[in-house]
Amino acid sequence: MGQVTFVIWRESIEALLLISIIYAWLKQHTDSRHGLKYLWGGVVIGCVTSVMLALLIYGVFNVLDDTGQSLFMIIMEIAACLLIVQMVYWMNSHGKSLKSDIESGLAAQTQKKSWWGVTFIVAIAIAREGSEVVVFLSSFIMTLNKNNAVDFFISVLSGIVVAAFTMYVFSLFKRYIPWRIFFNITGIILLFLAVSLLLKGMEEGLNLLIEFDYSVPDFLYLPAWDTTNIIDDSGLFGSLLSSFFAYRSQPIWLSIITFIIFWLSMAWLFLRGGKHAQQN
Length: 280
Prior knowledge:
With 280 residues, the protein is mainly alpha-helical. It has 10 helices and no strands.
């Protein structure tokens, strides 16, 4: 459940950061007391929307047959991978202007005397973070049962608590640890989580093709090497590396090819994004 705690922690920090920016801006407003009601209303709406999405995914998964569940799982894993990449790229591109963008949107709504507009901005921001969490953790949500539900919810709660503590620590040391460095480091870890989800989806897809007797090149499912004697991915440390950094002690060639293509694509995407930002 380490992945669950990390994802909840990272996304909760983003959500708390957004809330703190909006809260600080509203406190400066002449009608701040009235505005804060709409802020917390937006937080509630965003959280409820995220929970409804989680229930929808859980419900859809449980009405499918075995093949349908396998396909749905693969689709959600690949979707989660793409969403993580999009989120990290967006934060990398807009992190500097995040505060000013939010404040300009709030100013436009309050000038129109539309406090419901503030609620809408907050709800969309929270629902976006919450929906990302739901999709990231869809493979856990779809397989929830009475045996693992307690561990799952403890991990979720732990992530939120640690995120709140992290925000407090950063407020004390924000002069020494810029948020940009924090998001860059956690962004890299998230990209590793993304490739881990992608590998899982590709491997499950290959197994499904083989199960239905589709013709696939033999070399794709042959092991490229074996490092079980060094770090076994079924052990505690190996499992941690597998969950967070896509480690495989016996990787098949499909996984190797996917891993290389993913990181070449990320290098192209982020280098291109950096050049584009410099030109602007």
